[in-house]
What we know:
The chain has 242 residues and is of the alpha/beta class. The protein is built from nine helices and seven strands; from the N terminus they run H-E-H-E-H-E-H-E-H-E-H-E-H-E-H-H.
Amino acid sequence: xxxxxxxxxxxxxxxxxxxxxxxxxxxxxxxxxxxxxxxxxxxxxxxxxxxxxxxxxxxxxxxxxxxxxxxxxxxxxxxxxxxxxxxxxxxxxxxxxxxxxxxxxxxxxxxxxxxxxxxxxxxxxxxxxxxxxxxxxxxxxxxxxxxxxxxxxxxxxxxxxxxxxxxxxxxxxxxxxxxxxxxxxxxxxxxxxxxxxxxxxxxxxxxxxxxxxxxxxxxxxxxxxxxxxxxxxxxxxxxxxx
Length: 242
């Protein structure tokens, strides 16, 4: 946290991957005034938490430090949970996001077709806010997300040499739909690649996004900060002395 402050990082959202272990995430958020958290079941653990209901999620999300639902989604790369369990869990989380008004943090890996189908179908039942986090999908999924009013968030992957396809997508997105994140402790950006990732390193991802979009770092900082507070509306904006 000290290094994050030194790097200029203000408010943070730490991500839940198991509802049944959410107390550990919440403890971090409660320890630091500037840290908030999400609530959800990662697709890897979908089969372990099939008994978690929309009502469970909604009730727990009332906590003042819970500012998002998820991460939930589809991961067909590892398939640690059956696709049917992942899809059912994702739909529950979408329902919870719709009911609470909190944004959904979406995990999607090697599942673009099913993800587009589910998101489009669920959006037809009623609007909800969402961000496709740690984006590694294709252009079609990105276009689908834009059409549904969602955001896309980039990690240190954007800095990797072989990520030109991802950078090409990043160049095309509207400025009000882009975010940066760490996915810590994974995917540390260059020049920290190979180390344990941490919040301070998000500055390098922002720098890469600025270079990719041919704008200044200060502009990317301003835009992604504005996008963050608009999406995670439950996080209070810091008061700036003038």
